[in-house]
Amino acid sequence: MTISFAPLEGITGYIFRNLHHEMFPGADSYYTPFWASTVDSPLAGRGLSDMLPENNQDIPVIPQLLTNQAAAFLPAARMLRDMGYEEVNLNLGCPSGTVFSKKKGSGFLTQPQEMDRFFHEVFSADLGIKVSVKTRVGADSPEEWADILAVYDRYPIHELTIHPRIRKDFYKGEVRMETFRYAAEHTGLPLCYNGDLNSAQDCRDFFVAFPSVTHVMAGRGFVANPALARELKGGPALNKAELQTFHDRLVAAYQETLFGDRPVLGKMKELWFYMGVMFQGADKPLKAIRKAKSLSDYSFAAQALFRDCDLIPGGKFYQD
Hints:
The chain is of the alpha/beta class. It has helices at residues 14-23, 45-51, 70-83, 97-101, 112-124, 145-153, 177-186, 200-209, 220-224, 228-232, 240-257, 261-275, 283-291, 295-308, and strands at residues 2-5, 29-31, 61-62, 64-65, 87-92, 130-135, 160-162, 191-194, 215-218. Helices cover 45% and strands 11% of the residues.
């Protein structure tokens, strides 16, 4: 079985990835948060920094791009190839309103004919790098899925990662497993499953239900429980002491690279949106974390949480 770490914008950048890979080995690959490549700027600024090989040494990283233009995708993919990457992933799943309105991410799913032209141009080029896709199963209705999948099936996509929700679902409600089953039964493309894998047992249950699919991708559950891959592969469950060490080292790493308290607080408060549900009776310290306006106030609240609150037993932490 293979498990990958899905990208979460603002959280799983290279600083997070490096520390996670060191402390919680087991993830088979890490996908970068997407870079919105354009014709004028195929890969630059923050996107380039997060994907530079020197910032991802000895980590199995797969860069992710967001675009609906082959003229923007192709030069970015070639730059990544020249950096030494063997695979690039196209994001066709992001449900953000801004992204959707530009017909990118899940918004591109509303234009299957344009998608077809995009892939024809991409796969007609001599790229020298594998192209994989992460997708939702529609924008407004799961009835769109058959036509979308038919487009994918016409091209030698290296792997198709399916998050079986439509764009209108965002991340709420039950995943639409019937759409994933349809893909498993109707395409010969290699598949990866992504969606509501919040514990090692969730992953095991999936592999039982779909024995022909050997790759899963977890995001929110992985951020909440950094030891998810280790547990899935037979290692020990997460313990509070190592999570606190991970937390403290992450704060220190952000302080070394970010200027001032505010950006560090932003990073850590967003992380607690996921990690906070792991702890019993943590409402008071979590409120103090959210209200903290300085790193000293934040540190006091975080240390109180680790001191006074226990992890929820059972290993399944994240809940919608």
